[in-house]
Every structure is written in structure tokens, then in C-alpha cells.
Amino acid sequence: MLPALVSLLLLRMPTASAQSPQYVLSNHPHAQHISTIHESAVQARRILNLSSIATLSTVFPHQHLIEPFENRPDNLGGVPIGLIDYYASCDPTPHEPTILAISIATSFRNARAGSNVTLSLRYHPPIHHPPPDDIYTYSPANLPRFSLLGHIEPVPASEVEEHHIDRCFFERHPDAVAWKPGNAIHHSWWARLVVEQVYWIGGFGDRAYIGWIPVEEWRGVTQEEVQSARLVGERGYEKARRL
Q1: In the chain, which residues have pLDDT < 70?
Q2: Which string of b and e fits 108-121 if b means at least 16 CB within 10 Å?
């Protein structure tokens, strides 16, 4: 009886253009062009360049690694936490986000204790109110997002000076000048996320690549490609193809 009831409910569910919900998850033979891995890498690098705020995720260390001054609940060892943080895409490694690390902040305490780090980003299109007859183009489910997996390392002082990393970062985050290295509030230092893996979701599976982007592909994208690439909505409103 239960399988029959489930089948009946599925038959009554509304679908777009008489396609089943599974359609958006599969590489349908009549689907539009699906981005290649390299095209997806270019799009991801474009998002990294356009954005400057992302979610930095780390894992709490186990009890014996807790620093003496910490006051935290018990049994958090191995539990992940994601917090918003500033970043900037700066030379000489624009593919590895530059971060102004605050030593006392949870994310950087966890990283110092050995946690790997994930930076998660998503595309925020410039179109805020698309026409009501288009529910797909700017649906968050159809917009690209990705995660950069790796570890944090300090940026050498010589590199900060030579490539004007502080200027690059403060152009994106003027308020961050208040906690630049040497400030009187908190100890801070320039860091970068060394990217080791990239996981990409370009949108619905019938029109976008979903999967891992090799780190060599990620690093190999040129700044010219980043500057010339355009994401959905950057040229103005674009109506979605019907599902």
C-alpha cells in the first residue's frame, strides 16, 4: 500500500515542462552545454576575484590540545565550525586567498592546533529581483558555489612588502586597517590559504559541472581568463531555459 501511495503522490507533483525532478540532477542528452572542468575553474576563480567574504571552516582540537586561556564547552574535539571571514585575492598567488589572521580568533586557534581549513564561497548575482515568471536563473540552487580545502601558512614579510599585500587587502576591506599587524587591539599576521583541493557545484546538474577541480587546473587559470569571464547576470538579466 505504501509504495502505491508514494507513486501516486509523485504523479501529482507539479513538474516543469513535464520533466521529473530527477531531470535537473542528470546530464540529459538534450541539455544545454555543460561547462568543462577548465571552464568551471575559470568561473570559480572569477567568483574568488569578485567576492571578498567567505565561510572559513575548521575543526576544534581535542581536549589535550586546548590552550590554557580557552573557556569552551567539553567534548568539542573533532567538531567542525564555520565562521565568516575576510579574504582578498592578491599577488603573487591570486589563486590562494590572502587572509588577515587574528591569533585569538577561533578559526586560527584551530588551525594552529593542526586543523585543516575549508573556505566556502558562493556567487552573489547583481540581479536582486528577476521577473516573477523566471524562478530558475537566480535560484540559489542554480548558482555556482565551491569550497577550497587546504591549510593556512604565514605570508613572508618580504612578500608582503614586495607585492603590497596590505594595500591589496585594505582596498577590499578598509575597516580591517584597525587590526593590521602591529595594531594595539589584537595580535594579527598575514596568512594565505594554500589550496590543496577544490570542490565545485556549478548549478543544476543538467547544465553545470559538479565535482572536483584538479588543483593544477585551479592554479593554471590566468588572470586574463578571470578578467574576461562573465557569470550569469553580470551582463544584465538573463532568462533561464525552461527545465
Answers
A1: 1-32, 63-68, 127-131, 237-243
A2: bbbbebebebbbeb
